[in-house]
Design brief:
Oligomer: single chain
Strand order of the largest sheet: 2-1-4-3
Distance between the termini: 41 Å
Radius of gyration: 13 Å
Structural class: alpha+beta
Strand content: 25-35%
Order of helices and strands: EEHEEH
């Protein structure tokens, strides 16, 4: 049973910092979210032209990531 991949788009600034990233939890900056995803799924990242990139994740892996990040930062204001 193949499911469709979950695609998370990333946009970088000219200095290499992450400017925008899809599905970012409120308690994380764009750079923190990118670093977290890179640590979990760096092999699933594809650099694109124009300072962009994507993470291509399986639905199952994405659900695991969401559960893990929802447990972090729950005590944050």
């Amino acid at each position: 049973m193949n499911s469709r991949p979950v695609i998370l788009h990333v946009r970088f600034g000219s200095d290499g910092q992450v400017m925008e990233i899809a599905e970012r939890p409120k308690h994380m900056s764009a750079q923190q979210w990118f670093s977290f995803l890179w640590g979990k799924a760096g092999d699933k990242f594809q650099a694109l032209s124009g300072g962009r990139g994507i993470f291509r994740l399986s639905e199952e892996f994405w659900e695991e990531i969401k559960k893990e990040t929802s447990s972090h930062g729950q005590n944050d204001g």
